[in-house]
Every structure is written in structure tokens, then in C-alpha cells.
Automatic annotation (TrEMBL):
<dbReference type="InterPro" id="IPR011778">
    <property type="entry name" value="Hydantoinase/dihydroPyrase"/>
</dbReference>
<feature type="domain" description="Amidohydrolase-related">
    <location>
        <begin position="47"/>
        <end position="439"/>
    </location>
</feature>
<dbReference type="Pfam" id="PF01979">
    <property type="entry name" value="Amidohydro_1"/>
</dbReference>
<keyword id="KW-0378">Hydrolase</keyword>
<dbReference type="InterPro" id="IPR050378">
    <property type="entry name" value="Metallo-dep_Hydrolases_sf"/>
</dbReference>
<dbReference type="GO" id="GO:0016812">
    <property type="term" value="F:hydrolase activity, acting on carbon-nitrogen (but not peptide) bonds, in cyclic amides"/>
</dbReference>
<comment type="similarity">
    <text>Belongs to the metallo-dependent hydrolases superfamily. Hydantoinase/dihydropyrimidinase family.</text>
</comment>
<dbReference type="InterPro" id="IPR011059">
    <property type="entry name" value="Metal-dep_hydrolase_composite"/>
</dbReference>
<protein>
    <submittedName>
        <fullName>Putative dihydropyrimidinase</fullName>
    </submittedName>
</protein>
<feature type="modified residue" description="N6-carboxylysine">
    <location>
        <position position="147"/>
    </location>
</feature>
<keyword id="KW-0479">Metal-binding</keyword>
<dbReference type="GO" id="GO:0005829">
    <property type="term" value="C:cytosol"/>
</dbReference>
<dbReference type="InterPro" id="IPR032466">
    <property type="entry name" value="Metal_Hydrolase"/>
</dbReference>
<dbReference type="GO" id="GO:0046872">
    <property type="term" value="F:metal ion binding"/>
</dbReference>
<dbReference type="InterPro" id="IPR006680">
    <property type="entry name" value="Amidohydro-rel"/>
</dbReference>
Length: 464
């Protein structure tokens, strides 16, 4: 199955790459292939797809006095289990730090640790003369996209002046600007008022981060990008009004893109309100979960069909309850933001095929092919074709996946809970190859830390 169609075929892997895609039972120069290869993986009745590309993860992200609980080792192992064979993680520069030091620190964390291939975006968390200059070196490092934050004043935040300067630089260099589009200063006012009123439970995180502030920031980002001729990619879109801004911009010829995440398709603010005690903390992420009554989730699915949103990443940013989420027991503002899903994206999105929300081809496009094209990896990743890396998943539509950590369930992410506890999904990741090596099959996990290589990325194939 590719982004454009499906056909019965045999896939011939030679070493780390795909050698041929052949009609079933083909002979090659008179040789019976099955008799001459080292290993045959029987995928009869199953889907063979390019490995998932998760273009938004945060292994070991420092946040709120703690750090995301998956290391590159545990996080990429979990990714492999779930059929994701490439991650693009965010290297971090904060105000006062040097961009290239941030990138070097991320290489140190990841090198020799990853089970699957990995690449980096650069967070530019302090836009100043030094960091603008440093951005000139990113493309040569294979880092062709960077992220700005309109949220989190005092942490990663960029004001409009900084955004304009960074976008001008990015437009010159061909870097894709990724935007966390929420009006942080306004959110902080609302959050402080809520806490003062005694509304300090996890649910109020979502109330403070009102959809109006996502819509407003999305619009502002679009217009600043238009002004500076910078292509724009809005991350973790959750409000239908933000999607409407993106749709309007695209209809008017602006080069803007958006991703959503599984949590914004399946989970809601109402469920968070209904969660007992502090349980709702497991769903504290930014942008927040939105109201189902307001129809945001349905609108995200619709936007994935109409291409108003182009792809699905996880924003994998796991924190344990114990010692991490619990930092915000008395005040939701101190709950580290993030949900862990790197292991579940392929299954959760396949569920959209099962329920008729998206086609089989669109599933592959949203989870593998478009992420590869968007972030300059296509050809190596995102496709099963001669010359491509042999990142291949055999997916069993007749299989079943029970997600969670309780009662015999075991995920592989380093988390003491699951945001997806109890999810039952039709479909199952059967076999996973990373550059020709079987890393997961019926017998279990065969991967190893250090198999995964750093990927220098080309410019986005969506630049014009
Ligand atoms: O809640 C989230 N999304 N945490 C990770 C940081 C970010 O803004 O992507
Ligand atoms: Zn963000
Ligand atoms: Zn993120």
C-alpha cells in the first residue's frame, strides 16, 4: 500500500535498501526468487507499508523542572514496536544558550542510542542576533526546519518582533518554520485567574488554553509568514477554528501546512473533566484537548480527508505520573505538558481506516509519505520503491491491539501510565524492518540501540 494505491506485490530487500518491487511470484533473470533469498516474510492477507515517520517527538525534553521520561533508547524502541521507523526530534536552544550547542547536546543524547533512524528539528527558544546567525549553519547540519513558540512566556517564547526576524532569516535559507501557535501571554493571564479562583485541577489547563487563543495565534503566524515569504507549518493543531484559518490561508495561495495528533482525534476535554481525582493530568498537553460538544475532533478527521491538514505526528512528550505529572497536584500550571504516543500512532490512525474516516492510502500518506516529503526525507523514507531504505511494516488488518499498561497490557514507552489505557484497536503491527533489519516480528523485539542512524535532511519538498 502506498499513498497513491494498492497492489499485490513482492518486495525484494537487498542489504539496507529495497532492490525491487515485483509482481507476485515473479522470477528475476530466470531465478525463482523465493528459493534464493535468505528470508521470506509471508505477508499474505496483510498490508505492506513504508515504515512510519513520526516528525514530532520530544525525547528527554526539559520541561517544568523535569525532563520527558523516554530516552532516545526507550523512545525509539517503542517507536519500532509500533511500526514507526523514523523519528524527527526537537533539539532545544533556550534564551541565553547557543543554537549549535543545543544541537550538539541533542546529538550527544541520541548517538548510539536509537533503535530506528532519527533526525532533528531545531527549537529556537531565544531569537537574538547570535541565534539568527547560527540558523545559517542548520541546513549544512541536515536540520532544515526549526520551531518557534508563541506560547510559554519565559521559557521558549518568541514575541512578534522575534518571529518576524526569524521568519525573514528562514525564508532566505529555505528553512521550514514550525510554529507552536497559542497566545501564551493571554493564556498565562487566564491560568493565573483560574488558580486564584481555586480552579487548579488538570481540567482547567484546557480552559485557560481557549480555542480563541489558538485561532488568534494561528492567524497571526499565517500573516507574519505571508509578510516574510516564509513557508509555515503549524504543529499540533487541535481547534477547528485554527484549521479554518489554515484552510482559508491555503485557499488564498499561502504556503502553509498543519499537523494534528492522535489525541486531538480521539480524546476530549469532557473526558478530562470526568476523570477522577488527578487522573486528568495524563491528558495535560499543549495545545490542549478540546470539547467534543464543540465538534473539534470530527473537524480534525474532516480536515485530514480534505487536506486542510496534511499529516499526523504524535508530539510524543511522555512524563510519568509519579514525580513528574504530580508536580502539578496543587496547580495545573506545574503539570509538565505532554502525552506519550510514539508507539501507538500507526495503530490509532489505522483505526480511522476501520471506522471509515480515511482511506487505506491516506493512512500511509498521513503517517509516512507526507512527513517524509515535508521534512526532506522522501526517497529514502516514506515510500517502498527501488533504492529506498528498506523500512517496511507488515500490518495485519485481522489482528488486534490492546493499548495500555494495566492488566497484562504492556507498552514499551518509559511511562507509568498510558494516555490510551483501554483502547482496543483493530489491526496489528506484525513485522517491522529498519534499513533491512527485522527489528520486530512474531518472536518479539530484535532491535538494538545504535542501529538507528542520524539522517541529514534535505530541504522540505513542499517549498516553492
Ligand atoms: O504538551 C506538549 N505539546 N508538550 C511538548 C512541547 C510542545 O509544545 O510541543
Ligand atoms: Zn508545541
Ligand atoms: Zn511538541
Amino acid at each position: 500500500v502506498s499513498a497513491t494505491g494498492r497492489t499485490p506485490a513482492d518486495v525484494l530487500v537487498d542489504g539496507e535498501t529495497i532492490a525491487a518491487v515485483l509482481a507476485p511470484g515473479s522470477t528475476l533473470l530466470g531465478f525463482d526468487l523465493a528459493a534464493h533469498v535468505d528470508r521470506v516474510i509471508d505477508a499474505t492477507g496483510k498490508y505492506v507499508i513504508p515504515g512510519g515517520v513520526d516528525a514530532h517527538t520530544h525525547m528527554e525534553l526539559p520541561f517544568g523542572g523535569t525532563a520527558a521520561s523516554d530516552t532516545f533508547e526507550t523512545g525509539t524502541r517503542a517507536a519500532a514496536w509500533g511500526g514507526t521507523t523514523t523519528i524527527v526530534d526537537f533539539a532545544v536552544q533556550r534564551a541565553g544558550e547557543r543554537v549549535m550547542d543545543g544541537l550538539a547536546a541533542w546529538h550527544d543524547k541520541a548517538a548510539g542510542q536509537c533503535a530506528v533512524d532519527y533526525a532533528f528539528h531545531q527549537i529556537v527558544g531565544g531569537v537574538d542576533d547570535d541565534s539568527l546567525k547560527a540558523m545559517e549553519g542548520l541546513v549544512a547540519e541536515g536540520v532544515t526546519s526549526y520551531k518557534l513558540f508563541m506560547a510559554y512566556p519565559g521559557v521558549f517564547y518568541a514575541d512578534d518582533a522575534q518571529i518576524v526576524r526569524a521568519m525573514q532569516k528562514a525564508a532566505d535559507l529555505g528553512l521550514l518554520t514550525m510554529m507552536h501557535a497559542e497566545n501564551g501571554p493571554a493564556i498565562d493571564v487566564l491560568a493565573a485567574q483560574l488558580v486564584e479562583q481555586g480552579k487548579a485541577d488538570p481540567y482547567f489547563h484546557g480552559i485557560a488554553r481557549a480555542w480563541q487563543l489558538e485561532e488568534e495565534a494561528t492567524h497571526r503566524a499565517i500573516m507574519l509568514a505571508d509578510l516574510t515569504n516564509a513557508p509555515l507549518y503549524v504543529v499540533h493543531v487541535s481547534a477547528k477554528q485554527a484549521v479554518q484559518q489554515l484552510a482559508w490561508a491555503r485557499d488564498n495561495g499561502k504556503n502553509v501546512f498543519g499537523e494534528t495528533c492522535p489525541q486531538y482525534l480521539y480524546l476530549s476535554l469532557e473526558e478530562q473533566l470526568g476523570a477522577p481525582g488527578f487522573e486528568g493530568a495524563k491528558w495535560v498537553c499543549s495545545t490542549p484537548l478540546r470539547s467534543r460538544a464543540e465538534g473539534h475532533q470530527d473537524h480534525m478527521w474532516q480536515a485530514l480527508r480534505t487536506n486542510d491538514l496534511q499529516m499526523v505526528s504524535t508530539d510524543h512528550c511522555p512524563f510519568c505520573m509519579k514525580g513528574q505529572k504530580e508536580l502539578g497536584l496543587a496547580d495545573f500550571r506545574a503539570i509538565p505538558n505532554g502525552i506519550g504516543s510514539v508507539e501507538h500512532r500507526m495503530d490509532l490512525m489505522y483505526q480511522g481506516v476501520v471506522t471509515g474516516q480515511i482511506t487505506l492510502e491516506r493512512w500511509v500518506e498521513l503517517t509516512s509519505t507526507t512527513p517524509a516529503r515535508m521534512f526532506g526525507l522522501y526517497g529514502r523514507k516514506g515510500v517502498i520503491a527501488p533504492g529506498a531504505d528498506a523500512d517496511v511494516v507488515v500490518y495485519d488488518p485481522a489482528g488486534h491491539t490492546s493499548i495500555g499498561v494495566g492488566e497484562g497490557r504492556t507498552h514499551h514507552m518509559h511511562m507509568d501510565h498510558s494516555a490510551w489505557e483501554g483502547f482496543e484497536v483493530d489491526g496489528h503491527v506484525d513485522v517491522v524492518l529498519s534499513r533491512g533489519t527485522v527489528v520486530v516480528d512474531d518472536a518479539g523485539y530484535h532491535g538494538r540501540a545504535g542501529h538507528g542512524r542520524y539522517l541529514r535532511r534535505d530541504l522540505s519538498q513542499y517549498l516553492v
